[in-house]
Write a structure and sequence with these properties.
61% helix, mainly alpha, Tetracycline Repressor, domain 2, elongated, 229 residues, single chain
């Protein structure tokens, strides 16, 4: 996964999420976040300083300290906002497992890829800024909520598998997240680091999940299963 340095990418292709841009009196925090998102798009999550974020927001170098301890604190806030947006998207896509768990899980995968494509700067802040989770509990909790949705989806999907061959829901959720994140990071990005793929990234993910699901249902787990077939 290549790091973006000087290639510009839009931090969001859906301006309705965060309202208008620009600094307005009394809205310094939002101006700093938007400025930092633009800088992430231009230079990557590690390519700018706290002072540069302040300058891009049109404020003095001391102004950001009213809201953030340092640059890492600003990046953690951006990553937290990104996870909250992603959680909202995935909950909507899951739709409580309707019309069925398999279709709903595929919808979650498509929503994950869409987020990486349409919110590339948030995505970079969430997964490429190396923010320590042990010292940022709100950020860790936000990531855990996203993973909890994948685990709940996995539990519902495997409910129909015979108990003797049912995989652990935790393991399956980790596999699905790894598949989704790997495909998103390599082939579904919304920036110049995206690698070429002779098919839509969504189709690649759906095929991978289908193969995974069929393997769970059809792969024999004992000699008796072989006899039954």
């Amino acid at each position: 996964m290549g790091r973006v340095n000087t290639v510009h990418m839009a931090w969001s292709k859906d301006s309705k999420r965060d309202g208008g841009r620009g600094y307005h009196h009394g809205n310094l925090r939002e101006a700093l976040v938007r400025a930092a998102l633009d800088l992430i798009g231009e230079k990557g999550p590690a390519g700018f300083t706290f002072a540069e974020a302040a300058r891009a927001a049109g404020v003095s170098p001391a102004a950001p300290y009213r809201h953030y301890r340092d640059r890492d604190d600003l990046m953690a806030d951006i990553a937290l906002r990104g996870f909250n947006l992603l959680e909202t998207d995935l909950v909507r896509a899951w739709n409580e497992g309707n019309p069925d768990a398999g279709s709903a899980l595929e919808a979650v995968g498509r929503a994950y890829l869409k987020f990486a494509r349409t919110e590339p700067a948030y995505y970079s802040a969430m997964f490429e800024a190396a923010i320590p989770l042990d010292t940022n509990l709100p950020l860790r909790d936000a990531g855990d909520r996203v993973f909890a949705l994948l685990r709940a989806a996995s539990e519902k999907l495997i409910a129909s598998v015979p108990k003797r061959s049912r995989p652990p829901a935790l393991m399956m959720a980790l596999h699905v997240w790894a598949l989704s994140h790997g495909i998103a990071s390599l082939f579904g990005r919304g920036d110049a680091a995206r690698r070429a793929l002779p098919m839509p990234a969504e189709e690649l993910l759906e095929a991978a999940i289908l193969i995974y699901r069929e393997g769970l249902r059809l792969a024999p787990s004992s000699p008796e299963d072989l006899t039954d077939r």
